[in-house]
Structure formats: C-alpha cells, structure tokens
C-alpha cells in the first residue's frame, strides 16, 4: 500500500486509533487505563499500516495518556485493558498516585496560565465607565441565545450522495469530510484531516 494517505496530524492519528481500536481507545467519556507495554502491541499490530509511523504513534499515545480525561480514569479498582478491550490486571497504587499527581500539576499549570493571561487581556481593553443608571424597564428580555451554532442532525441513508459535505461523529467534536462512496449502511468518508474511513450511517451528521 502506498503511503499517500500518511497521517501527520496527531488529532487525525488519534481519530484513526478511535476508529481502529474502539474497545481500547475511547473517543469520549470515561477512559480506561491501558496495558503496560501497549505501545509495542500497537506498533506490531500496525506494522504494515503505511498511514502511521512508530514515532507518530508514540506522540499520539503520549497525548492520549496525558489528557485529564485519561488521568482521571487511573483510579483505584480500575482494570488495565489491551488493544481489544480485554482486562489485563488491576492498577498498582504507585501508578494511581503518579497519575493523580500529574493531573493535579497539569490542572494547576493551566489555572496559572489562565490567571497570567487575564491581566494582559484586561490591560488591552480600556476600562468602561459605568453607564448612568436608567429607569428600570419592565420589558422582559428574551433568554440569551447562544452564539449561532449549527445544529447537526443524524443523516438518513437516502439523503446521502457522493461528494456531499458531512460531519462524522468520532469524538466530542464532529469531524468534517466528504462522502466518497455509499455501500448499503456503510459510508466511506474522506475527512478534512486526510484520513478516509468507513462508518455506519448513524455516525454521519448533517
């Protein structure tokens, strides 16, 4: 297989792992701790896959296991899992302690970064003078409407056609792409990230 579809973006590689090993890499919600040495299993399983390299897999795996979502899942009673979702033994306390310490440190750094940026943002905006008080208006204001958000609805098979722009539900955020082929309930979509995947019609959003 030619490496024309080589993935270079870490998010695209993670999306590929979510699709290829859904019982191991969980796209949204609570994750499960991974088997020790899983990288080696992953490298062997994808040895003939030209889409990703060992270096890219290592970077993607590091991002997955350093996310707050993953670190929160490393807790007492949790079982490690392999690529196929099989349990591989309970976590050791030292690994739990390390994960919780890493999570706390990461959250504190993020908080400090936000606080450091806040004064800069405040300095850019001139302080507004308090507007003179006006007589209270009894007219009720309509409930605040969130910024225009395109509401995506699950697609119906009969609505889909080739070269149609769609969104694919892979994780917390739908990934845009183009329909390249439709085969019964399976739809082949080329994502904007460059990855081409086959998904069920219920994962397509319009």
From TrEMBL:
Annotated compartments: Cytoplasm
Q: Write out the entry's keywords from A to Z.
A: Chaperone, Cytoplasm, RNA-binding
Region Disordered: start-end pairs: 104-143
Pfam families for the chain: ProQ, ProQ_C
The record's InterPro entries line, in alphabetical order, gives: ProQ, ProQ/FinO, ProQ/FinO_sf, ProQ_C
Matching Gene3D superfamilies: ProQ/FinO domain
Classification via SUPFAM superfamilies: FinO-like
Ranges where the ProQ/FinO domain occurs: 5-119
- The residue ranges flagged as biased composition, category Basic residues, are 122-136
> What family name appears in the similarity comment?
Belongs to the ProQ family.
Q: Tell me, what does this protein do in biology?
A: RNA chaperone with significant RNA binding, RNA strand exchange and RNA duplexing activities.
This protein is called RNA chaperone ProQ
Name of the coding gene = proQ
């Amino acid at each position: 297989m030619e490496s024309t579809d080589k993935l270079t973006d870490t998010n695209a590689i993670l999306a590929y792992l979510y699709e290829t090993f859904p019982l191991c890499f969980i796209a949204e919600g609570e994750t499960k701790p991974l088997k020790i040495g899983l990288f080696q299993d992953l490298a062997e399983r994808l040895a003939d896959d030209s889409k990703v390299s060992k270096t890219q897999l290592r970077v993607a795996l590091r991002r997955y296991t350093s996310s707050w979502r993953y670190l929160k899942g490393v807790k007492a009673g949790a079982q490690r899992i392999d690529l196929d979702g099989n349990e591989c033994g309970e976590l050791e306390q030292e690994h739990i302690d390390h994960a919780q310490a890493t999570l706390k440190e990461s959250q504190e750094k993020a908080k400090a970064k936000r606080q450091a940026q806040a004064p800069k943002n405040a300095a850019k905006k001139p302080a507004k003078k308090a507007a003179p008080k006006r007589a209270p208006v009894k007219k009720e204001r309509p409930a605040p409407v969130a910024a225009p958000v395109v509401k995506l609805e699950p697609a119906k098979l009969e609505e889909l056609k080739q070269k149609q722009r769609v969104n694919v539900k892979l994780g917390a955020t739908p990934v845009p792409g183009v329909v390249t082929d439709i085969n019964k309930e399976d739809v082949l979509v080329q994502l904007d990230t460059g990855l081409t995947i086959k998904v069920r019609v219920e994962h397509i959003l319009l």
